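Notes from the 1:1 (GR / supervisor)

We went over the backlog. Supervisor wanted to see one worked example end to end before approving the batch request, so GR pasted a single chain during the call. The sequence is below; no edits were made to it. Supervisor asked that the structure be written out right there so they could see what the output format looks like.
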Amino acid sequence: MHLPRRDLLTGSAAALAFSGLARYARAQAAAGETYRNEAHGYGPLVPDPNRLLDLPEGFSYQVISQSGDTMDDGLFVPGQPDGMGCFDLGGGKVALVRNHELKGSSGLHRNLGPGGFHQERIGRLDPARGYDTYKDGRALPGGTTTLVYDLESRRTLRQHLSLAGTSTNCAGGVTPWGSWLTCEETEETPADADVTKSHGYVFEVPASAAGLVDPVPLKAMGRFDHEAVCIDPGTGVVYLTEDQNDGLFYRFIPTRPGRLADGGRLQAMVVRDRPGFDTRNQDGAGWAVGDELAVTWIDLDEVESPKADLRLRGHADGAALVARGEGIVWADGELYMTATSGGPLRRGQILRYVPTHDGGRLQLFLESADERVINMGDNLTVAPWGHLVVCEDNYSRDIRNHLKGVTPDGRVYTIGRNVFTGNGEFAGATFSPDGQVLFVNIMYPGVTFAIRGPWTSVRT
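Structure output shown during the call:
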């Protein structure tokens, strides 16, 4: 059952729901309880005998790809799978376009790239087909892979490298015209890293591409620590997050909707009558869960930012601060984004933005008051039944990362738990077109899962 998000939780209903969540979380912490779901959801998790992924009773997972597998182009599936989009290819087949967050300046990440740990297959990758190389001429390890999966036979049909030579491809977003926008979360330059070009751009990868795409940086969309994007399908406006604790929230108005390479205007969000407003709420005194603010947008200049100071200049001009904007998703006339280090506990917020004719409204939709309820949400998506699905990305070896659901009335429940050694982050949650399969990555050891189960049985 699909429920329109606009009708699910707005205005005073959101304030009531999520203030209730905060009260619940604080009471739970005061009582010293161990972690439990706030809503029933799908019930308790069942321990996985394989020690990978705990799921509720009736659910199952399939590993459909793993870092180190040999792809159809002879290269290895790279490590660090992160953001991911799912695309309908027809005939029951889907394409999953995955980012690989491999940093150009990291020697370890070089070893996790498509050439292999000892670079034994790097000769299969023509460096001229990638965006950038190390100074020794070999392609950088970041980029995207495309995996084609058959929903009926439950088989991975093929995999290949689809974008090469980029760095720190973190998240991104799907376009209404069938491509994946992959974002570099870095501002590396030849002056400070073993690279030959500046980084910090967005690239477009058509889901139908059968091999490597031309690596064209969309420079008008700005150079900064990009995290994720989403697109308003009605207007073609692109919204972008920035993974910095003093980051901004951006939008890109294309000159020609659907033709991002043709340029456009990059803007930053400003709270009306409150220039430089701090949405981070890290001192607890900025705004309360459920509050809404009227916002507008200002144009930015020098968006290629050779000094890596775009956010600093934008804030000086009045743009609002956002605490590590990460995942973002468009949902029926509005969007939701995570601010991973927001709130007094610095354990995360979810912000809701509704565009209006004169700017928009920004709401503090959720704020973690207890890490056992929600802990550093990162990538997120909207489930076919209208709930948010949030990937946790905390850095603790003791507090496990979870997949969380958030109900329309503000309660949180658990869908899955990472129990593999190292507690890597969940990333790239995305549903198949029929809503039956949730695809998701665990960054370490680099696994892509297909999860099935009685999704419509969720209890709130």
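Supervisor's comment: DSSP finds four helices and 26 strands in the chain.
Batch request approved.
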